């Protein structure tokens, strides 16, 4: 299955579900949020983003990435126990 790059997605503001995202467990609502987020990113790098759109983009960035952290939680790679073990291994104080 070939996935179209973002540059080939419709630019007319019409939401088109991104099936690979939906298949991976992203809700349609958040897929829509991501669609709009990508539109704003495109406008930003084209130098066409208004101040209101910049605020909206920041809000959507926070919303979407918080959602991803909830749906696909990541293990903490530097919890206190791991930091202690690394400090001990390399003979350093973790407070340094």
Descriptive notes:
The chain has helices spanning 19-23, 28-45, 51-71, 80-90. The protein has 96 residues and is an all-alpha fold. It starts with 18 loop residues before the first helix and ends in a 6-residue tail after the last helix. The protein has one domain (6-90). It is elongated. Residues 1-6 have low confidence and may be disordered. Helix 2 (28-45) packs across helix 3 (51-71). 57% of the residues lie in helices and 0% in strands. It is built from four helices and no strands.
At a glance:
The protein has 96 residues and is an all-alpha fold.
Describe the protein's topology:
Elements (H helix, E strand, L loop, with lengths): L18 H5 L4 H18 L5 H21 L8 H11 L6
Number of self-contained structural domains: 1
Beta-strand percent range: under 5%
**H/E topology pattern:** HHHH
Report the radius of gyration as a whole number of Å.
Answer: 19 Å
Basic shape = elongated
Distance between the amino and carboxyl termini: 50 Å
Structural category: mainly alpha
Number of contiguous helices: 4
Major sheet size, sense and barrel closure: none
Tell me the helix content. Answer: 55-70%
Number of beta strands: 0
Provide the residue-averaged pLDDT: 84
Low-confidence stretches: 1-6
């Amino acid at each position: 299955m070939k996935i179209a790059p973002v540059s080939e997605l419709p630019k007319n503001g019409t939401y088109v579900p991104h099936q690979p995202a939906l298949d991976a467990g992203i809700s349609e609502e958040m897929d829509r949020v991501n669609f709009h987020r990508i539109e704003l990113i495109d406008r930003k790098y084209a130098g066409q983003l208004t101040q209101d759109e910049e605020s909206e983009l920041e809000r959507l960035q926070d919303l979407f990435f918080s959602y991803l952290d909830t749906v696909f939680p990541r293990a903490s790679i530097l919890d206190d126990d791991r930091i202690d073990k690394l400090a001990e291994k390399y003979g350093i104080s973790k407070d340094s």
